[in-house]
Request: fold
Amino acid sequence: MIKADGSVVTWGGSGGDSSAVAAQLDGTIDVTQIFSTNTAFAALRTNGSVVTWGFGAFGGDSSAVAAQLDGTVDVTQILSTYYAFAALRADGSVITWGGGAEGGDSSAVAAQLNGTIDVTQIFSTNTAFAALHTDGSVVTWGSGSGGGDSSTVATLLNGTVDVTEIFSTSSAFAALRSDGSVVTWGASAFGGSGTGAVNVTQIFSTYYCFAALRTDGSVVTWGDSRYGGDSSTVAAQLNGTVDVTQIVSTNTAFAALRSDGSVVTWGSTANGGDSSTVASQLNGTIDVTQIVSTTDAFAALRGDGSVVTWGSSSGGGDSSTVAIGLNGTVDVTQIFSTGFAFAALRGDGSVVTWGDSTDGGNSSAVAAQLNGIIDVVSIYTTGGAFAALRADGSIVTWGNASLGGNSGLVAGQLTSGVVSAANIATNDVYINHAPTGTVSIAGTDTQGQTLTANNTLTDADGLGAITYTWMSGASVLGTGGSYVLQAGDVGHTLTVTASYTEAVRIDQIPAPLNCPLFLTMLII
Reply:
């Protein structure tokens, strides 16, 4: 968890022990983002440096490249495979560490990652990386069978036609080029042998295959036919007659959201590919607005605030036990998932859970903390546990204890001041957007006169109630929007500071000098 003071709190297995680097995570230098492999973390700090911990061989030990991660050249982004990290630096170069065969060793392509041609973005499969250059070319490394070897399509990735984005399954890449064509490489069984799709705007994937959305709203699929690569049974619904706007996947099935609010599914029937039992609820009569998945089930949020589920019952496909909490009487606003369970955040700040009980589907032990008396504002997940961030900056956890569901050891550090979280399965990022605007003081700087504080502040993260504090040096004179100058203020410099809460973080914005901020008081 990243706290408001820039410090980090960790618990659970696979990277939950950060004691070896505690001094680097105490907030002396703020941590802004945290990234992960399967068993290690990497924290990016405001000075551009990186701190790592967890299983050393898979990214927790970055000592071999410490001099390149110390912030002399700022690190701007970190990507990971299951076993290795790749850090993109401000000069366009890339630094790698962790499991060598899985992307931690980039020596074979070092000349292409040294910043001579800037790398702009990095992508990954489970065991390989692909770096996109500013000239539209692509460089790959890591496990050859997992996408690290792109030699067979090198002439298609050399930038003659710019690559604009890269997508992946577990063991293959698909590069979208500026002309709408797609180039694939990696394991054939996982989508590495493409279809020559054209006029593509976006690509989605399961663990085994790809689905490409084209400019006409139609969908093309390839990869393992059992797990979403074959969409022939729903071809008439994916031909663009009704545009597909978004595609979501479980490990082995797809769900396509169409412009009329309806949903089309295909792939493994047991794991979400067959939605026939809820077809009447997915036909667009009530628009579906969001689809979320676990490993083997889907949950669709509809425009009326209700939720529809299908797929493996043990993985969250059966929500019958909590149906009354998902029927829209109290709107569900967002859905989150672990590997086998869902959590629905409702408009009243409460949370409803279902799915595998050991992986977060059963939240009864913390029900009193999720009932909305203190609003839950966001939920973070690992493969088997949930962590709910509440409006008071506290954290509530449940699910698999070894995957973060039991935060008892650090409970005292999670009662307030938390702003975001990261987990071993995803790279959650906390970004505090800087406020804009000014604070000003109006009035005459004379004893007995009233000074008034004003502001033009805005904040992308949300602007809470603003309070003003009037000070003389280190002494607090008063609070509120105005202050009457006293005899004791004569000859002293006064300041006013505007404070507010954005989400759960407090920002303090002093008035600039030309407002004026500092006043000399003279008795008339």
